[in-house]
Amino acid sequence: MSALPVYRWRLAPEGLATRRQLRALGLRPGGAPVVAQLERPRRRRGPLVAYLYRVDTAKPVRPMTPAKRAVLAKANAARQVCPRCGQDAGYRIPPTLGMCGPCAYPDAA
Q1: pTM value?
Q2: Per-residue pLDDT tens for 56-68?
Q3: Whole-angstrom Cα distance, residue 99 to residue 92?
Q4: What does the DSSP assignment read for 64-80?
Q5: Hey, which residues does 76 pair with through a beta bridge?
Q6: Chain-centre distance for alpha carbon 26
Q7: Percent of the chain, pLDDT > 70?
Q8: Which of 41-50's residues contact partners 24+ apart within 8 Å by CB, and which partners?
Q9: Distance (Å, rounded) from C-alpha 103 to C-alpha 68?
Q10: Phi, psi of 16, deg, nearest 5
């Protein structure tokens, strides 16, 4: 049993939003506590749960700094290099394969 108010899907009151909804507004929870939860029923499993935050206490999203942008660009570039052949694949290598397409499926070509 939860101490938080629970609302059904699409029936949350105005002024409450999920993390994604806050992000779309250019906001973040900013350490604010969860004030309610939203439940979406499913047929054969438990309900999907989303936590709700107050919009009026949300803080603006921190801007991307040049240093952070450079680190993310470097990390994304590293994800494009195949660890097996060392070539730049030109796309992010899927973690399920762990290597580029030609290395994973050599007979497909």
Answers
A1: 0.68
A2: 999 999 999 999 9
A3: 10
A4: PPHHHHHHHHHHHHHTT
A5: none
A6: 15
A7: 97
A8: 41/8, 41/9, 50/18
A9: 32
A10: -115, 145
Tens digits of residue pLDDT in 3-40: 899 999 989 999 999 999 999 999 999 999 999 999 99
| Radius of gyration, alpha carbons of the chain | 21
38, 40, 45, 50: CA torsion to nearest 10: -30
Here the tokens at position 28 are 């973040």
Integer Cα distance of 50 and 69 in angstroms: 29
Question: 7 is written with which tokens?
Answer: 């609302």
d(CA 56, CA 15): 7
Apex 74 CA angle, 98 and 88, nearest 5: 45
User: In the structure encoding, which two tokens stand for residue 40, read together?
Assistant: 């979406």
Q: Are the C-beta atoms of 99 and 82 separated by less than 8 Å?
A: yes
Round to whole Å and give the CA distance between 23 and 14: 16
Per-residue pLDDT band for 83 (boundaries 50, 70, 90) equals: very high
